[in-house]
Design goal:
Helix content: 40-55%
Oligomer: single chain
Structural class: mainly alpha
Number of helices: 7
């Protein structure tokens, strides 16, 4: 039972996989995995939120339900041009999570908005809804400027009506279905 390395196809990209017969994919003690886990964008799908931003809002006296929703809509509207409800309508979502149905670029821009707002909030320590709204908008403005720059360079919008299954897998089947399973040589 040893470790195996193999180049495999993942979403049309070749990647190296490391597999241990006893442990499965190597997780702990692997520097690459550790570094990648630190960069992972967190999704509500796995039960986690951007705790940095929500913790900052709580610390600043923002009320969790209604005021969190107002700030979330402000952030979304500022960088994407749409409220959360409008964005979900664009993607044809009803109860599904918007973040789980964003393209990689949309996720990155949302993360830029959230993390920038978090960092600004940590520096300024805003109090109450109004001050937190100012900080939230500033963070989202950074993402909006980034979005504008990217769109200028690529010549089209990065906001997409595509849902997660559409943009990760246009044919509707898993991207690895046509890849032969790993066998020990």
């Amino acid at each position: 039972m040893g470790k195996h390395e193999q180049i495999q196809l993942f979403h049309t990209h070749q990647v190296r996989s490391v597999w241990d017969d006893e442990k499965g994919v190597i997780k702990e003690g692997n520097e690459s995995v550790t570094n990648c886990n630190q960069l992972k964008l967190v999704s509500p799908k796995d039960g986690k939120k951007n705790k940095g931003l929500t913790d900052e809002w709580k610390r600043g006296g923002v009320k969790e339900n209604e005021e969190f929703a107002l700030l979330t809509d402000l952030m979304s509207k500022t960088w994407s041009g749409m409220t959360t409800k409008e964005y979900k309508q664009l993607k044809g979502l009803k109860k599904e999570n918007l973040r789980d149905n964003m393209t990689n670029m949309e996720l990155l821009l949302n993360a830029i908005a959230e993390e920038t707002a978090t960092q600004i909030s940590m520096e300024r320590n805003p109090e109450g809804l109004k001050e937190n709204a100012i900080v939230t908008k500033e963070g989202a403005d950074v993402a909006k400027n980034t979005r504008d720059d990217i769109e200028k360079r690529i010549g089209h919008t990065v906001i997409s009506s595509e849902r997660a299954l559409n943009h990760t897998n246009p044919k509707g089947s898993l991207p690895l279905n046509d890849v032969e399973p790993f066998t020990e040589e």
